[in-house]
Amino acid sequence: MEQVWLKSYPKGIPAQIDLDEFRSLGDLFEKGVRKFGQRTAYINMGKSITYDELDRLSSRFAGYLQGVLKLPKGARIALMMPNLLQYPVAMFGALRAGYTVVNVNPLYTARELEHQLRDSGAETIVIVENFAHTLEQVLPKLRVPNVIVTSLGEMLGFPKSLIVNLVVRHVKKMVPAWNLGAHVRFSEALAQGGAHPLKPVDVGHDDIAYLQYTGGTTGVAKGAVLTHRNIIANLQQAHAWIGPYVSEKGEIIITALPLYHIFALTANCLTFFKIGAVNVLITNPRDIPGFVKELAKHRFSVITGVNTLFNALLHNPEFAKLDFSSLNFALGGGMAVQQAVADKWRQVTGKTISEAYGLTETSPAVTINPLDLKEFNHSIGLPIPSTEISIRGDDGQEVALGQPGELCVRGPQVMREYWNRPEETAKVFTEDGFLRTGDVATVDEAGFVRIVDRKKDMILVSGFNVFPNEVEDVIATHPGVVEVAAVGVPDERSGEAVKVFIVRKDPSLTKEAIIAHCKENLTGYKVPHHVEFREELPKTNVGKILRRMLRDGQA
């Protein structure tokens, strides 16, 4: 496909990236701490650590893995925790010592955790005690000899550490009883590791940095093999894109999405590490009042999020009172940003949400909108530097510009393979090396990409395609609606019919009002036949609404 998008690149953004600036993520880390030593690196629950402190702590953790556990290069280290200071310490320590990080959602069930540990072969896990009871159910079935347990308050210092752990354990009762047998506390691991200096390890582009699991909502979760080259490529691509809008003089980025998710991992943690930013870690973004109070403490310049997070913030009256004068840009990804949310965001903050798009398999960024957009354009942006895309029909052939087809991607950020799954790997790649995304998209003459919908989520009404995103966007503009999800349900007359699940802002909102609103904005076959009101909608760990669970009656 002709790279028509290059002519729409903002000034100062290159067509290609330099992959040779860093040999590995450990190299990125070493150069960063040398450059930004005394600067604050992370803030969490009021506690901050500098780049130098992160260097010392992660070196101790690496020393524990190398010198005490004596793990060989390439061993998989599972990290199962929310956004805490322990996460970057453990992650960078593992990477510096030549190990592979396996990120685990702390909300996983025992079944999901067992699958991921078994599939990845991880024999070492760092876990927050709040979720240790889940691991307890799994350990009799697996060999995981090295268990490191931490608490929410462990790195906050006295007396805050004591207070936080007391509240979490005894007031909020957020730590179910657990017994893991032999294990070591995180602080003890750091203490023991201090006696074992970090041994240099030869790590290069082709070594595996992460096994990042994906596909759990559509079947068995698969580990995307993301090499140091993949991740370095994507952070260089992201840095090239944001370069004209940020500096190395003290950006403050808000990280509310979990670092164990690829979006926050690459976009927030690694890309902003390169420029010496302050990363504010939000442990529980679902506590919106608490989240807004934390935002009030910082003159933040960047925030990333998903549509549901932006929407929740906008529904909190205190959010509109914040000082947004330092905000450079807001980046939305993970799911489609709805027009109604984007409009309200601009009204409140004065900034346009720049929507981006990516996949776990692409480390994750594929496209990003220009960050100087004056208005939300409902596209996912332009392919980022060194990225090729191709829009293909069911026959595998490229479709004409402007026509819908499956979005396929090729570039240095695309994963090597699925871990130990050659058949799944073969299915997802084309013969000429493009990754099939499963998303239906169009590209206009200026190179802007628009996602029409997921192939599997498309609703077929009497032979007509209905895209849930379009229906959801229309309903989201109704002032009585907080959230909405649209799915297809069996229908004797039309094959499928549209059903919507709605969380109401206005308790008096009726099915009839929703249908009338849709009839004003949608052609007949797109109008929902079924409307169901819910107190909440099922979501993934990053807030993406799970249409599948609604469609299958699992929620």
Describe the model.
With 555 residues, the protein is of the alpha/beta class. It folds into three domains: 4-13 and 231-454, 3-Layer(aba) Sandwich (Rossmann fold), CATH 3.40.50.12780; 45-203, 3-Layer(aba) Sandwich (Rossmann fold), CATH 3.40.50.980; 458-551, ANL, C-terminal domain (GMP Synthetase, Chain A, domain 3, 2-Layer Sandwich), CATH 3.30.300. The strands form five sheets. It has a nine-stranded mixed β-sheet with strand order 2-1-11-10-12-13-14-15-16. Strands 7-6-5-3-4-8-9-19 form an eight-stranded mixed β-sheet, sandwiched between helices. A hairpin with a 6-residue loop joins β14 (353-358) and β15 (365-368). α4 (110-120) crosses α5. It is globular. The relative contact order is 0.10. The model has no long low-confidence stretch (mean pLDDT 94).
What is this structure's SSE topology?
Blueprint: H1 25-36, E1 40-44, E2 47-50, H2 51-68, E3 76-80, H3 86-96, E4 100-103, H4 110-120, E5 124-128, H5 132-138, E6 146-150, H6 160-171, E7 184-185, H7 186-193, E8 208-214, E9 222-227, H8 228-242, E10 252-255, H9 262-274, E11 278-281, H10 288-295, E12 302-305, H11 307-314, E13 329-332, H12 339-349, E14 353-358, E15 365-368, E16 382-383, E17 388-392, E18 405-410, E19 417-418, H13 422-428, E20 435-443, E21 449-454, E22 459-461, E23 464-466, H14 468-476, E24 481-491, E25 495-504, H15 511-521, E26 530-534, H16 547-551
Parallel strand pairs: 1-11, 3-4, 3-5, 4-8, 5-6, 6-7, 10-11, 10-12, 12-13, 13-14, 25-26
Antiparallel strand pairs: 1-2, 8-9, 9-19, 14-15, 15-16, 17-18, 18-20, 20-21, 22-23, 24-25
